[in-house]
Design goal:
- There is one protein chain.
- The protein has about 220 residues and is of the alpha/beta class.
- The protein has helices at about 5-15, 35-45, 60-65, 80-95, 140-145, 155-170, 175-180, 185-195; strands at about 1-5, 20-30, 50-55, 100-105, 110-120, 125-130, 150-155, 200-205, 215.
- The protein has a single domain (about 1-215), classed as P-loop containing nucleotide triphosphate hydrolases (Rossmann fold, 3-Layer(aba) Sandwich).
- Helix 1 (about 5-15) packs across helix 2 and helix 6 crosses helix 7.
Length: about 220
């Protein structure tokens, strides 16, 4: 059935209970629309929600180069899941006046530390990323901190088109953008797809996500 943004906001808003702290995860393959959906919900909830991304825990390019994995950036082992789990634990415990989370800058392809302030009185943290449901060491510890995870499902064709456009927008030549979307990104998408059934809610995005309409499975 079709599901409007308002309906998703209502479900997320039910988690935002004053005096408590809950975490909502939005998972899905590269290009599925995680950032679009999470940002739209966070904006709709205003001061009730803060948005924190898994991508901020990419290992630095210098580290990836030293490991020989720069060309696989985005694979599970090119992140620091323990660091992400520790941030989620701090956010869930909510014992500090403010937690400053990092953010990933796509124009730099690097993370910026202490860039996202999350105050103690914010009841809901929304976090989005590929591997929130991955059953692997480090990633399991992340999932333990998240109250509910939604999985965004979209056709490979639509998702790959979005990825190619995104890579081009951030400076890749068309042939490089396509090679990355159909190579490294697609291998990572297959890993993410294997985690789909662990989600609390599967949202079937038949088309690229917009603020107006989503389809819920």
């Amino acid at each position: 059935m079709t599901c409007s943004l308002d309906e998703l906001v209502e479900r997320a808003g039910a988690l935002a209970v004053a005096g408590s702290r809950r975490i909502l995860g939005v998972a899905g393959a590269p290009g599925a629309g995680k950032s679009t959906v999470a940002q739209a919900i966070a904006e709709a909830l205003g001061g009730q929600a803060a948005l924190v991304g898994m991508d901020a825990f990419h290992l630095a390019n210098e580290v990836l180069a030293a490991h020989g994995s720069r060309d696989r950036k985005g694979a599970p082992d090119t992140f620091d899941p323990w660091g992400y789990a520790n941030l989620l634990r701090r956010l869930k415990t909510n014992s500090e006046p403010v937690v400053y989370a990092p953010k990933f800058d796509r124009s730099l392809e690097e993370s910026i530390g202490s860039a996202v302030p999350v105050a103690r009185d914010v009841p809901l943290v929304i976090t989005e990323g590929n591997y929130l449901l991955l059953d692997a060491e480090g990633w399991r510890e992340c999932r333990e901190q998240i109250d509910e995870v939604w999985f965004l499902d979209i056709s490979d064709g639509e998702r790959q088109l979005r990825l190619v456009k995104r890579h081009e927008a951030f400076g890749k030549l068309p042939e490089e953008a396509e090679a990355w979307a159909l190579g490294s990104d697609q291998r990572n998408a297959a890993v993410v797809a294997s985690t789909r059934e662990r989600a609390d809610l599967i949202i079937d995005l038949r088309y690229a996500p917009t603020r107006e309409t989503f389809a819920q499975a």
